[in-house]
Request: fold
Amino acid sequence: MFFDTAPNYGAGKSEELIGEAIKGKRNQVMISSKCGHHSNGEQNFEPKQLLVSVENSLHRLQTDYLDCLLLHNPPFSTLTSESPQFELLERLKTKGKIRAFGASVDTGKEMRELLDCTNSQVIEVMFNMFHQEPAMAMKSAHQQGVGIIAKVPLDSGWLTGKYNRHSTFSGIRDRWSGEDIEKRATLVENVRRILGQDPSMVQAALQYILSYEEISTTIPGAKNSKQLQHNISASEGELPMNDLEEIRILWEDEIKNAKLSW
Reply:
């Protein structure tokens, strides 16, 4: 089982809960955590602070190593093996504190920089039906043997089908303007027309991502066991080829040049 977490998820609570859950089962799970966004809400990529962050993560997770450690949306200038941040990751791997490293990013440009300029073994990138820009960079990563974690697979809830043009948002989701909401609502309607009325949009969104051989895993959230089982069930089937192709065409024709903010 694969867990994706970070110090700033629930101010460290996410890591604490995982640590409790995996007691006696550490060899049965893979844990990927991050550094750069700290449990107090601060963003700091100074190596000394990153090292403190990693040690705190290990303590909360009750483990002496991480399967994967990612710089959490770091500045573009750090995406080079000569940066002190990646030098630190190399040292942590040599010491056995981590088994693989890389970065969590949003774009194909960042991915290509990581592939060309670092020894990253894993890259986490935003990829879903509405965000397909990294697809070509993912091919390059796959050819180089770099694992890909697809993040934001349900487009922050839009690809669950539960939002529409009349939805209102608070918290982090209030970043969407009225124009953003209108665009996304129209896209959700278009996806539903492609899929028909019967299939679950959650399952379809995850199956779309898993149709890419380059992707090692994806990380949908779950608030309860019912949602977890629903997410897992996506691995039990595949989207028809016609649906896959129509969704790719939808992105090319209506989304690729629309500058859809995340």
Q: What stands out?
A: The longest helix spans residues 178-195. The beta strands are 2-4, 30-35, 68-72, 101-105, 122-126, 147-151, 217-218.
